[in-house]
Amino acid sequence: MAYISLKNVGVNFPIYGAGANSLKKTLAASVTGGRFGRETGVNVVQALSDINLELKAGDRLGLIGHNGAGKSTLLRTLAGVYEPSVGNFARSGSVSSLIDPSLGIEGDANGVENIMLRGLVMGLSKKQIDELTPGIIEFSGLGDYINMPVRTYSTGMMMRLAFSISTSVQADILLMDEWLSVGDAEFTEKAEQRMKDVVSSAGILVLASHSPELIAKECNRVIHLEHGRIVSAG
């Protein structure tokens, strides 16, 4: 059963070798939007603070807030990329992260090799990747290009490959940073249907977006983040 629980969770990023004044200037322009502080004598950016959240199967949570409010940091914490500095985090169920679909794509490797590399990043076994590979290749529509280095691909072709890999696995928990768009008119229709299928099959959806319309359409719960804190929920 899909389940997520965060109790008083905070995520701090230590910064070494910089004085407080220069750190404050850096922080003012930082995309993290976190708070400046100190932890056991070390300067830190408090990217998330006092996050309390419980999600169960059927929840579709929208994350809203300005750039640097902590939406992406929270998604990465839920994905297990960042470990909480304080608090308790529990999660049950398989996770699919569409935060950065191009993560793990290597330009000098060909398409088939990149399916293996990206699959390993996603936590799949070699056997699972081998079973998924024919379907990924077919869905991508890359044809003979699948055996060519990805650095020879156009941007649209690379996104086709990344999208096909990232959406090839059904998971209990789906994490998304904006709605995926491949930017390829020929591919858009079936990609849109694939996205709908992936979202509808997930037990829990967590979607960060700047689009109120998208949040209203896809989500039944919303939290508003500012400077790494939840300022409202509904």
Write up what this structure looks like.
The protein has 234 residues and is α/β, with parallel strands linked by helices. The chain has a domain at 3-94 and 208-233: Rossmann fold (3-Layer(aba) Sandwich), CATH 3.40.50. Strand 2 (35-39) and strand 3 (42-56) form a beta hairpin. It has a 6-stranded mixed beta sheet with strand order 6-7-8-4-9-10, with helices on both faces. It has a 4-stranded antiparallel beta sheet with strand order 2-3-1-5. Helix 3 packs across helix 4 and helix 3 crosses helix 5 (155-166). It has 7 helices and 10 strands. The longest helix has 17 residues, at 185-201. It has helices at 20-28, 71-79, 111-121, 126-140, 155-166, 185-201, 212-218, and strands at residues 3-15, 35-39, 42-56, 60-64, 86-92, 95-98, 173-177, 204-208, 221-226, 229-233.
